[in-house]
Amino acid sequence: MNVWIAIGATAVGCYLVKLLGLLVPAGALEKPLVKRLSALLPVALLAALTAQQTFGDGQQLVLDARGAGVAAAALALLLRAPFLVVVAAAVVVTAGVRALG
Amino acid sequence: MAAEQTTPAHIRTETETETGSKPDSAVIRDALGVGIAVGLSGFAFGVTSAGSGLSLLQTCTLSLLVFTGASQFALVGALAAGGSPFTAAAGAFFLGVRNTFYGLRLSQLLALPRAVRPFAAHWVIDETTAVTLAQPTRRAARIGFTVTGLSLYVLWNLTTLIGALGARALGDTDVWGLDAATPAVFLALLAPMLRTSTERAVAALAVLLGLGFLPVLPAGVPVLVAALAAPAVLFLKGRTMSRTAKEDDR
Fold first, then answer.
1. Is this structure's pTM higher than 0.90?
2. pLDDT tens string B57-83
3. Cα–Cα distance between B36 and B155 in angstroms, integer?
4. Which keywords has UniProt assigned to this entry (chain A) (predicted)?
5. Per the CB 3.0–4.6 Å rule, which of A24, B82, B112, B135 could disulfide with B219?
6. pLDDT for B221-247, tens place per residue?
7. What number of C-beta contacts closer than 8 Å exist between A and B?
8. Which chain B residue has the Cα nearest residue A11?
9. Which domain holds residue A75?
């Protein structure tokens, strides 16, 4: 039930913020500070999520095979690999390190 | 399309050979390229979501109704970590807020009739915006938006379903390294955003906050605390800039 509540809230919330952009008159939200903040908010969230999903295990911080996988993804990104290759690199390296460990 | 009647005459020049025109086929090719490449990554979402313990119906509902990748990954990640439904949804919601600003740009470029906007809104995401903004004319922008949106929506949902079904067949998805897919997706979305020192400072502070509070705050809350890195860095930067400005006055 909790999962459905989360899904419902996310679906409604994410739809409304999409619709808002198409409905409000141009210029209403185009204030420099608001624009800067809205551009930086995903940066903060994605950076924190990347770190947590790499090093978090419940409420503990751990260094495991995922660290190697995400490092491989970072390398793939530096080499300008396509999106799917980046994800595949992380998955394959993580599985490989687990298989060896 | 009914909207064609409201198109001002000066942008109905796309078939002529003036600068900035682009054949429809080229727009469609660009749009399909993005739509197909990103649409296929719904597979990673389907696997991750099912691996996080969500049912097939829940996983597919997310792709059908939320349809903004980063928010979907964030939600299932937070739920898997044991977050409350509201903190989990809040993290996903804040990631979706950027779409509002895409919508502001798109509504000027596409000039959609009011009746169409509630439907078009569902497709206002990173990829459709990127393709639409790159088009030289309104006709090209509308084609780019529609083709990217449609191909991405269909494929994303199809691959979500296949991924969720596949995850069951795989059993323990961690053995296959699939728990590394989510952070890799986030990193791939983040990387192109790290253009200036401001973005890098925000990212670094957010990592510190996100990891530092992970052991002490309830699941899902640390990421919301980490979001404060954005206003914090802007505030500090504003202070530094006004101080330098004052020193310049002297």
1. no
2. 999 999 999 999 989 999 999 999 888
3. 7
4. Membrane, Transmembrane, Transmembrane helix
5. B82
6. 899 899 999 999 999 998 887 777 666
7. 301
8. B66
9. 64-101
